[in-house]
């Protein structure tokens, strides 16, 4: 298995299918490149996990990764405080600046993936 990589991107307070699709497409792309991908959206959309718990688990997962993938939608700048990027820099993780066009994918694929995940969790 390849390096473990964590996806960093702009996540709104209410996660819609468009946001979920961007992360899912990045996950697929990175998996095809041979990475073991940590997609933080997966926990954040799980209604059985409190948001605070999901965030803590995601940060824990980040600390177990070798690299991060920064999606193009991520706001960067002097006044932007992004804990994930700060941790990646502090712990000298490999940083990959993203350039995947995630806007062309359909939300239908995400709906199907959600259904598949729910069936897996139920079993």
How would you describe this structure to a colleague?
It is built from 5 helices and 4 strands; from the N terminus they run E-H-E-H-H-E-H-E-H. By secondary structure, it is α/β, with parallel strands linked by helices. It has a single domain, classed as 3-Layer(aba) Sandwich (Rossmann fold), CATH 3.40.50. Helix 1 packs across helix 5. The longest helix has 16 residues. The protein is globular and about 35 Å long.
Oligomer: single chain
Strand content: 5-15%
Rounded to an integer, what's the Rg over CA atoms? Answer: 14 Å
Q: What's the total number of strands?
A: 4
Label the overall shape.
globular
Low-pLDDT residue spans: none
Proportion of residues in helical segments:
40-55%
Strand neighbour order, sheet with most strands: 2-1-3-4
Task: Provide the residue-averaged pLDDT.
Answer: 80
Order of helices and strands: EHEHHEHEH
Distance between the termini: 26 Å
> Structural class, judged by helices and strands?
alpha/beta
Q: What is the tally of helical segments?
A: 5
- CATH class categorisation: Alpha Beta
Number of domains: 1
Quick rundown:
This protein has 123 residues and is of the alpha/beta class.
Jot down its keywords.
single chain; 123 residues; alpha/beta; Rossmann fold; four-stranded parallel beta sheet; 4 strands; 46% helix; globular
């Amino acid at each position: 298995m390849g390096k473990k990589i964590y996806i960093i991107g702009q996540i709104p307070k209410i996660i819609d299918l468009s946001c979920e699709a961007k992360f899912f497409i990045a996950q697929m792309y990175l998996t095809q490149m041979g990475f073991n991908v940590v997609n933080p959206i997966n926990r954040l959309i799980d209604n059985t996990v409190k948001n605070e718990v999901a965030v803590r688990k995601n940060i824990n997962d980040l600390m177990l990764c070798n690299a991060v993938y920064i999606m193009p939608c991520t706001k960067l700048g002097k006044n932007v405080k992004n804990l994930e990027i700060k941790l990646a820099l502090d712990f000298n993780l490999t940083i990959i600046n993203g350039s995947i066009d995630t806007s062309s994918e359909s939300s239908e694929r995400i709906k199907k993936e959600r259904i598949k995940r729910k069936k897996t969790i139920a079993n």
